[in-house]
């Protein structure tokens, strides 16, 4: 296991993913903000949540890069194409499995059934995060494919 | 029937503002910024603009006031069966409060409470984003409230405990002590935060907002004539200051007519350099140094972007505003077409802006600020621009849209720019200033103004060089230090301005011309007259009389538009207008200084032992 390479690949991949997401927000394609959602789990303040979330997102990226590396090792090769395919699967899992679970696991996310409370006020993402904009699933898929491309392309076995 | 401009009051949060009528109707709101497309614009078209109204369902009489020295508005409706109190505000929280709780970035809270008896409340929620060009469906999201797509992936959410559905209309019967809560919020660029529409949450955020405004207002250092209106004016300026950049918009509205039913309708959601010095003086003068310094920071950043030329106006981030266009689908306020967005004055030349910016920098220095090297270089570059181009014709302070002229006011402001630069250089703030060039140009300008800008026939300074008419902007000559207020030429000019431009006691027009035909008295010009008297052009009693008359033209909650209708006393033009409120503050500050000087002199005379008479 090449730890240094994994760290570098994970860092670059996460940075690209974050940049693409931020770009999608700036271009009004999506209101999905993973750093804000992650940070809001720790603090209610919007600005502080974004800062904490950014660092949590970087750590998450490293953990996911390790998972990608484990798959590369198991399949015997690390390439950009293989990374992109894993990224696509990753995105599908996020959209179909993780996103619907968010209202249940996020301590500050409101749910459609209970409505907002004093503690839980963040708008839930809805099916495939469509509440955050109809192009959100596309933005999520592209960002994760780019993450996989970067990790697969940069990791040296 | 069209709601009169004076029947509106403003609430805001330093990023955008809403106008709410005496009838409880939210008729103007642009989110997320002052200059964003409107979401509610019934003020410009009652049918197509969109509104959010909460009022008794039947005849009533209403009164309203801000809660103490805050920007929280309370409207009371008296009906035959009971009394309602409607509280409107945009939450403004301290850093500590906002870090402790979740809040939408852009929110307007409305709470309606039945104080006594029983009242049926009619609710109309009819948002029309993009200046009424969109009429999106209201979607019900179950317990997550109502949702409206504003385009560009932005959403408007309304959470309420009233039984309001996708049709956007409801009638609710309230009994004594019962309340309905509304949280209207806007989200773009991040997931929405949806506050629960509960009594506890509304009360909590109201208490935090009241506390913050009251603390801010208590820092106003003023104890003189018309104190209530001076503090209200400071609160208006604070509302109109775009907090992220420090820019102050001239007004939060567009196209409210300066001439009833007429075509003098402009977009004022930008920042004019002509207001710079007067605004800086007003903020520093009231002790709001933080706001003044933020404004100066915006001013110096904006002007450095166009160095060495200055534009007439800039947007909230110091950029050139978009081109002027007409919204032909909107009827306009009271049928006054066209409704314009953007402002064509951006392409004009106003030489007076150099004087304004440099004078503002001088206020900054006098208040303890330090000029850094890039700013010093920039000011010197402005000085060279003025010294080489002061004799060009320009469009003048009133942005006349026909042919450029050689305005006396512009010349005097060029004189002021060069004189202040020489003063700054003399005090060591501008080590590289070409003082000899600046002083030579300054002296040439004075000579020109004293010969061509003075009419022996009229016995007055004139509107344009070699002209034959006056202009209210000439009242500012003593303010800029060009001449004493009691100088013979200035006194004579004052008499001529009163004779030609005073259209009702204490109310002054700008000048005579095709552009001003049918328009009302200009608020700022009328306050300049007070200030002229306070600076020595008249007695303190005369200045106080003028000020007393003028403050009587404020609407019931202390707000001024750009102009005052001399017949009805009503408001004309964009509303509320920062420039008019700046004029009120400055006039009051000058009058206070004059009164205090008088007191000190009287005290000095009282305590001195006179010389023995022979």
SSE order and pairing:
The complex is a heterodimer of chains A (157) and B (614).
Chain A: H1 3-26, H2 34-40, H3 46-75, H4 80-105, H5 136-154
Helix pairs in contact in A: 1-3, 1-5, 2-3, 4-5
Chain B: E1 8-12, E2 17-21, E3 25-30, E4 38-40, E5 51-56, E6 61-66, E7 73-78, E8 82-89, H1 95-100, E9 106-126, E10 138-140, E11 146-151, E12 154-160, E13 169-175, E14 179-187, H2 199-218, H3 227-240, E15 271-272, H4 276-285, H5 289-305, E16 313-314, E17 325-326, E18 340-341, H6 352-366, H7 373-389, H8 408-426, H9 435-451, E19 454-455, E20 460-461, H10 488-501, E21 502-504, E22 507-508, E23 521-522, H11 523-537, H12 540-551, E24 563-564, E25 571-572, H13 578-607
Antiparallel strand pairs in B: 1-2, 2-3, 3-4, 3-5, 5-9, 6-7, 7-8, 8-9, 9-13, 9-14, 10-11, 11-12, 12-14, 15-16, 17-18, 19-20, 21-22, 23-24, 24-25
Helix pairs in contact in B: 3-13, 4-5, 4-6, 4-13, 5-6, 6-8, 7-8, 7-9, 8-9, 11-12, 11-13, 12-13
What does this structure look like?
The complex is a heterodimer of chains A (157) and B (614). Helix content of chain A is 68%, strand content 0%. Chain A contains five helices and no strands. Chain A has helices at 3-26, 34-40, 46-75, 80-105, 136-154. In chain A, helix 1 packs across helix 3, helix 2 (34-40) crosses helix 3 (46-75) and helix 4 packs across helix 5 (136-154). The mean pLDDT of chain A is 94. With 614 residues, chain B is α+β, with helices and mostly antiparallel strands. Chain B contains 13 helices and 25 strands. In chain B, strand 1 (8-12) and strand 2 form a beta hairpin. The radius of gyration of chain B is 25 Å and the shape is globular.
What labels would you give this structure?
heterodimer; A: 157 residues; 5 helices; B: Beta-galactosidase, Chain A, domain 5; Glycosyltransferase; 14-stranded antiparallel β-sheet; 25 strands; 34% helix
